[in-house]
Amino acid sequence: MNIVRTDIDQSNLKLTLHVEKADYAEKVDKTLRDYRKKANVPGFRPGMVPASLIKKMYGKAVLADEINKIISDELYNYIRENEINMLGEPLPNETEQEVIDFNLQEEFNFVFDLGLAPEFEVELNKKDKVKYYEITVSDEMIDNQLKSYTGRYGKYVQEETVEEKDMVKGEILELENGKVNESGRKLSDAVLTPAYMKDEAQKAIFVGAAKGATVVFNPTTAFGGNEAEISSLLKISKDEAKEITTDFQFTIEGITRYHESEVNQELFDKVYGEGVVNSEEEFRAKIKENIQENLKSDSEYKFGIDAREVLLAKYENLVFPDAFLKRWVLETNKNITPETLEEDYPKMIADLKWQLIKDKIAKANDVKIENADVEEYAKKITRAQFAQYGMVGMDEELVANYAKDMMKKEETLKNIIEKVAEDKVFEVVRNAVKLETKEISIENFNKLFEA
Fold first, then answer.
1. Are residues 82 and 7 in the same domain?
2. How far apart are CA 423 and CA 429, in angstroms?
3. What pLDDT, on the 0 to 100 scale, is given for residue 299?
4. CA 95/CA 79 separation, integer angstroms
5. Structural domain range at position 319
6. What is the pLDDT of residue 141?
7. Does residue 12 sit in the same domain as residue 86?
8. Into how many domains does the chain fold?
9. CA-CA distance, 50 to 133, in Å (whole number)?
């Protein structure tokens, strides 16, 4: 096997592989002998089929298969041994690759095009400036989170007098001419909430009414003719609800009101665990700490975006084998059209350039991804998911178990590893460049992402 390298330019090269009979003859003969031992041909006993017949039946296919194996092995061995940093995969040369005839030829030439990654080193120093936004935690943000906790950890209490947002339960009877219609609709477990009524006068009929009282109202007027509300109240179809015009009598049997939690030790323990927080001052400080932690993730996210832009701009002159890459993308992605590729290509190159930059930084700084890093990041995601539902200070064993389940999904695990690697690269960048730190409100921070 003879391999000749031809450098076209800094981004493209050509490899020509010359295959002689000596490179493949022994392997082809061995394969055909194996075929002969196993071949089941009518008129011949197993293992007794003439070698010439076996060669006639399978020789061309075996030859092609063996040569393909040789080409693949030798091509990638050469690339690896010569440390060729290629992009994509080798492609057959479109102009110099000769037509192969396995029936007539004993020697073959295979010509491949390779696209090369640009050669460069990433140098970071304090001349490189990246913005870093520290989001301030306002008293309003703390108050809102405290309000969220008191609302989430409240309880339902039975009351004696109706207020607008109460859930009122009782018996409902249809009236006719001011009296109960014996053949009319009736329901023993009707439930309504005055706050949902559109008509203020109808709402006022309930608000202030005492448990045990009987009131008269008109569902159609009360709910503004909303068939969904009427059908839900009377447990009838929406079509039937359209026909309701009469008044109804409602006997109030129960009044349920949701009371927000008081800001006390019971609430502290429910939110953060027993004894972790022991005063409102400590509670607010802990809330602020949690908000700051969440906002730090947002700050890091924005830093990542800005650092990427700075480094892409710094290495904007890197040269890529554009023609080769476009050809490779089209040949390996049948759903992409040339028009779509032209439109998306700038973004593809930016993503590729960023990947190369990250790889350079990781290699230069000996960045390693340990199992502990991956597990800790999975737990971080788990805590964030719990926090969305107000579940903070969760038991670490529970968090760890959820994280382990998360990592059982191959795609999720892959994404976590990639994110851990990127975060480590950003940590290197953050320590090497000059951070232009700026305090900013959450409102102004969110505006940074507006188009």
1. yes
2. 10
3. 95
4. 22
5. 129-146+278-447
6. 95
7. yes
8. 3
9. 80
| Position 270 in a domain | no
Instruction: Say which residues have a Cβ less than 8 Å from residue 125's Cβ, sequence separation at least 6.
Output: 432, 433
Q: Same structural domain for residues 110 and 19?
A: yes
Euclidean distance between CA atoms 173 and 251, whole angstroms: 9
Distance CA 436, CA 292 (A): 19
Residue 285 lies in a domain: yes
What does the longest C-alpha to C-alpha distance in the chain come to?
109
Structure-token pair, residue 30: 């061995």
- Helix (H) and strand (E) counts for the chain? 15, 12
Do 23 and 160 reside in the same domain of the chain?
no
From 229, 259, 289, the end of a domain falls on: 259
CA separation, residue 14 to residues 76, 216, 325, 331, 338 (Å): 14, 91, 15, 18, 24
Q: Does residue 374 form part of some domain?
A: yes
Residue 193: which residues within 8 A CB-CB, separation 6 or more? 165, 166, 167, 168
Q: Model confidence over 45-103: pLDDT tens digits?
A: 777 778 778 788 777 888 889 999 999 999 999 999 999 999 999 999 999 988 888 88
CA gap 409, 387 in Å, rounded:
22
Angle between helices 51-81 and 21-38 (to 10 degrees): 130
| Burial readout 384-401 (b: 16 or more C-beta within 10 A, e: otherwise) | eebeeeeebbeeeeebee
0.85 cut: is pTM over it?
no
140 shares a domain with 93 = no
Residue 436's identity, in one-letter code, is E
Q: Are residues 235 and 104 in the same domain?
A: no
**Residues 40, 105 share a domain:** yes
Q: Torsion angle, CA of 34/37/39/40, rounded to 10 degrees?
A: -170
Output the DSSP codes for 258-326: EEPPPSSHHHHHHHH-TTT--SHHHHHHHHHHHHHHHHHHHHHHHHHHHHHHHHHHHTTT----HHHHH
User: First-to-last CA distance in the chain?
Assistant: 57
Instruction: State which residues of the chain have pLDDT below 70.
Output: 389-390, 392-393, 451
137 and 104, same domain (yes or no): no
Total Cβ atoms within 10 A of residue 344: 13
Give the helix, strand, coil percentages of the chain, each rounded to 5. Answer: 50, 20, 30
DSSP annotation of 183 reads: T
Specify if 272 maps to a domain.
no
Picking from 364, 362, 342, the residue whose alpha carbon sits closest to that of residue 354 is: 362
**pLDDT tens per residue across span 147-187:** 999 998 999 999 999 999 999 999 999 999 999 999 999 99
